[in-house]
Amino acid sequence: MKRSVVLLAILLLAGCRVIQVAVGQEDPRPFASGLPLVDEGVVRPVAGVGVAFSSGEPAVTISAEPLPERDYILVGEPYHLRTQWALVWPEGTSGAAGGEIIVEIEGLGVVGEGYLDHVDKIGPDLWQDTVDAVVEIPEAGAYTGQAIIFVEVNGDVFEERIPFGITALPFPDESDRPAESLLEPAFGELEYDGIFLDWRAWYGGPCRLEADTPETIRLLDEACLFATEQALVETADLLLEALDQSRDDPVLQARLRDQLGVIYAVFGDWEIAARQFRESLRIWETQADTLATAAALHNLGTAEMMLGQDAAGEALLIHAVQIRDLADDWPAVLLTWAQLSVYAGDPEALFEIAESAYDADLLQAALIEEQAFAIIEADE
């Protein structure tokens, strides 16, 4: 689950003295972008660096990997920005190359460095290496930065700058962890269709919400009555009114957005659900609520998948796994793994997840298992 395979493809066209070096990522799992997790934090490939020496000028390529516009890490956890290096000396050539990766974050300065010491060879020869700059964010918040890659070949220096954004979240206190019972579906039949929301977004419904103003309290009281009768249309209308009345209460705004997102997801109105989850995610990030941020990422990713935005949805779900893995958010992480595996059509993964879900007494365990059987049956 936490492994990556680096494919180094080298094509030597000795007759015309052309050498092409490509360094890239290959992941045998069905998820296109894989999971960038390691035992010591998070790994993000930044670039592949290739140097091909020749009788003339060496060929130097820095193939930048697209970094997420917004990545996630926990405060104090290692964040690896990784470069893969391949240096090639065909027969009859020689030369030296080395380099470094430096990471700068606005407001923090240089926060990480990694070096490739100069390698001097006579061909034919090949040198491959991995160079990481390891960053640890000291405080929660949203940051922007850049990875700067320097490659020095025979005294010439080549440079590439790759911008990125990252949000650091605190490790949640035990007192901040919601009850596992809140993961259980409250209404609807989404799970029978392989849609595994994080029901902690429902938070037990409007009956659990608190407000400071009499008008908002009245709206929540009425929404509570309708929700207990599963009159969801009326509940949603009242939550929307409460949203308009509580603009100065960001936590209540996020709770209302989450609950509206769940209702509209059950309605199958995924555009509206996605909008609500997107807004709740924005608020939870500013509140530095780690587990609520992970739940919003999970639910927004699910909504994006349902809208056919597979790449965006998968990236959001992977961010959710990223946070949950580091925050020991068990068993909620199983729901995200299950959702990814449903979209990947991977019954073996679903059987493994279902087994863990049974061990964790997760109510969705049987439905996860049913999805595995459904995929097998559909493939026969």
Task: Explain how this protein is built.
It is a single chain. The protein is α+β, with helices and mostly antiparallel strands. 37% of the residues lie in helices and 31% in strands. The protein is built from nine helices and twelve strands. Strands 3, 4, 5, 7 and 10 form a five-stranded mixed beta sheet that branches. A five-stranded mixed beta sheet has the order 6-12-11-8-9. The radius of gyration is 25 Å and the shape is elongated. It starts with a strand and ends with a helix.
Which characteristics define this entry?
single chain; 380 residues; alpha+beta; Serine Threonine Protein Phosphatase 5, Tetratricopeptide repeat; 2 domains; 12 strands
Low-confidence stretches: 1-34
Q: Which bin fits the share of residues in helices?
A: 25-40%
CATH architecture of the largest domain: Alpha Horseshoe
Q: What is the fold named in CATH at topology level of the largest domain?
A: Serine Threonine Protein Phosphatase 5, Tetratricopeptide repeat
Domain count: the total is 2
**Could you report the average pLDDT, rounded to the nearest whole number?**
89
CATH class of the largest domain: Mainly Alpha
Q: What is the chain-wise order of helices and strands?
A: EEEEEEEEEEEEHHHHHHHHH
Total of helices: 9
Strand content: 25-35%
The major pleated sheet works out as: 5 strands, mixed
CATH superfamily label of the largest domain? Tetratricopeptide repeat domain
Tell the overall outline: elongated
How far is the N terminus from the C terminus? 27 Å
The total of beta strands comes to 12
Find the structural class using helix and strand composition.
alpha+beta
